[in-house]
Amino acid sequence: xxxFQPAAVPGQPPPxxxxxxxxxxxxxxxxxxxxxxxxxxxxxTWGSVWVEGEITAFNLRGGNVFGRLKDLVTDATISFRIxxxxxxxxxxxxxxxxxxxxxxxxxxYVKSGDFGFSVSAMRHLGLGDQLERLERxxxxxxxxxxxxxxxxxxxxxxxxxxxxxxxxxxxxxxDVHRNAELRWPQVRFRTKYAAVQGxxxxxxxxxxxxxxxxxxxxxxxxxxxxxxxPQTLLGFSDERMLRAVAAASTPVVSAIxxxxxxxLLDDVADLRASTPTDAxxxxxxxxxxxxxLVGQLRxxxxxxxxxxxxHDIAQLEQLRSxxxxxxxxxxxxxxxxxxELLAARGRxxxxxxxxxxxxxTAELRATLxxxxxxxxxxxxxxIAHLGDGTIVRDAAQAPASTPLVVTVGRGSFAAHSEGExxxxxxxxxxxxxxxxxxxxx
Length: 441
Known about the structure:
Blueprint: H1 32-44, E1 48-61, E2 64-70, E3 77-82, H2 84-87, E4 98-109, E5 114-127, H3 129-144, E6 162-166, H4 171-183, E7 189-193, H5 201-214, E8 220-225, H6 239-247, E9 252-256, H7 265-268, E10 271-272, H8 276-283, H9 287-320, H10 323-326, H11 328-371, H12 373-378, E11 383-385, E12 403-407, E13 412-416
Parallel strand pairs: 3-5, 6-7, 6-8, 8-9, 9-10
Antiparallel strand pairs: 1-2, 1-4, 2-3, 4-5, 11-12, 12-13
Helix pairs in contact: 4-8, 5-6
């Protein structure tokens, strides 16, 4: 076993019980306690140093703080402890992502063999480099509208198939399955495993997301992880993953970490669940609650139908109690009498109108008969016509040998004019009986 000699500090002697070179062999090894004491004595000679870095973990347990401080350029980190007596003197708003300068003193814990630093002072120097990059990315994505609630897709009420992206054999997978199946036993999952931290986290998660998004049977996709410090959750704030989630056509649920964890994926996803258990409760409905709701709706429907039927029966009884429906024959009898009276009045009016028009017709017939040329011809007069139908009104119109047509009371006959003759002494008119004319029949 190789041992080492602690460095000498000017003005201080080396520890009396420290392990010196060649003091231990395979035949005479030193003890673990002596080795740890030697390491602790060596570490304690360093004294306090001021160091600058970014807080990547800050966990409060029993009044003490256990955290990690990361170098601003490389990935080098140290563990630190802030005891409760010191914490009261430090700023109360220290948190993950803060850029700080701290006074630390190295310490080696003999019992556990752990190496760390105790903080005696710490103050802000501004946001850490990682947090600054995340804030710039957050502002950019917000300006592009990726956080806009209007673009977020609604989750189906009861998904037939849930796509799950998580670490293989992880507690997050078990929590999602167990709680979802408790709420809806027939729920089905299609799981794609991916690294949930490290360099493989982003490409594997994006590949799993694209595969599930292209599956037409998948109704919703859940990305789940069981929490962790912000350093291990950085992959879920990667711009490539965020844009892949925003471009997915299937609703995506972010279930990363615990209640206080808040990667950028929570803002881009269609729904943010505080834990994987919460994601299971948000994605599928509770069958017991749904059955109770169906029972309530059935009871309300039965009550409304009963009320409606009772109301309609009451209205029907009210209508049946009216006189017009209680004795419908009375209404018909009354209407029948009215119709008979109106029919009699109509017949009387028609008879009087016929009589009036018959009298008027007789009067017109008599007037027409009196003015008719037939009456004149019946008294012995005649009408002479030329061949073209012209009535002869002057003897000069019919010189000798002019053919004529003579119309008398009964028919017409042809004649020839022998010229104009002197007027003869008028003879007394002989009355003859008036013939029956055809147009009067």
